[in-house]
Design brief:
Helix content of chain A: 55-70%
Low-confidence stretches of chain A: none
Order of helices and strands of chain A: HHHEHHEEHH
Shape of chain A: globular
Structural class of chain A: mainly alpha
Distance between the termini of chain A: 32 Å
Radius of gyration of chain A: 18 Å
Number of strands of chain A: 3
Oligomer: homodimer
Largest interface: A-B, 62 and 62 residues
Largest sheet of chain A: 3 strands, antiparallel
DNA sequence: AACAAATACATGTATATACACATAATAAAA
DNA sequence: TTTTATTATGTGTATATACATGTATTTGTT
């Protein structure tokens, strides 16, 4: 769907302005698709993101800061997302003996299982719902990284 | 900045998978830039979006539904965003005489003024911070609309 | 006209975002 | 070594998101 239809507007100053809104809209669209899949596991988008990050270092433990800097949305409140994962027994939380300021997290068996199942669903979104070949995707990646070149 | 640096990950299944995460991260990055500008006006990103939509039809009035279908993030709770704009006297809310189910909104003078000033700041973000020429932006728009071709 | 269905909006709840601030622990400096 | 600064995390608040449900109003059907 064209952006013009999606947000019922035609008043873009130029292509760059339209691209900005297009990125925001596409992100919302993608997040909605993913959340729909995650719902059957009782996971939110950000909870899934934390599980995925923990898996990356598994079975190593990770502290809050290391998780936070890997989040897609940097302003996420990681301690509270973890609170909910701990309640659901998907994540284990304990204190670091070396540095008592640290709290360290790791996946439980249940966390590993639910991550594995939900990742299948997420991969399905990327493989089947997103209509894009590898060359186009590579080009898109270049353009997005070009946009952020002046990352402040 | 490369996505790999931004989220400290290199485990992308393929370019399409990376593109998905890249869109989500770029949207967060852009939203953060815009919110930083809006903060000096006491506006949130979504409040700004509602003001912008109302301006599009101004001086005509708009009902909640018409605003909602123009929002970038469709799951926004428009009545409550308007609550806050009414408290700040940027938006006027009244009942529609023809259909009493409708609530109709329009910008106040203060709303028009703050929108005009904040839009200057937002345009500045697009013109000066986003590093992209018109041809690249047009290509990016094509790719984003290609990704959403299977819009469900 | 009376009833059922649809529409528009408001409201409630759990979670997340964005950001400020508090607290405890460690590192650095005097 | 005492003081100061920094770091890591937790907590608080206002707003937003995602979604379910309630309520008034209008429309369609008989």
């Amino acid at each position: 769907m064209k952006l013009e239809q999606a947000i019922q507007s035609v008043n873009f100053k130029n292509e760059t302005h339209k691209a900005g809104l297009n990125i925001l809209y596409t992100a919302w669209w993608l997040k909605t698709l993913m959340s729909k899949e995650l719902k059957s596991f009782g996971l939110t988008h950000e909870q899934y993101n934390v599980l995925r990050i923990l898996k990356g270092k598994s079975p190593e433990e990770m502290c809050v800061k290391d998780i936070a800097c890997r989040m897609i949305e940097k302003s996420s409140n990681v301690p509270r997302i973890i609170d909910r994962l701990v309640i659901k027994k998907l994540v284990r939380r304990s204190n670091d003996a070396n540095d008592k300021r640290h709290t360290v997290m790791s996946l439980t068996e249940a966390g590993l299982n639910i991550l594995s199942l939900s990742t299948q669903k997420i991969n399905h979104v990327f493989e089947k719902t997103i209509l894009m070949n590898e060359a186009s995707a590579a080009e898109l990646n270049n353009l997005l990284e070009l946009i952020r070149e002046n990352e402040s």
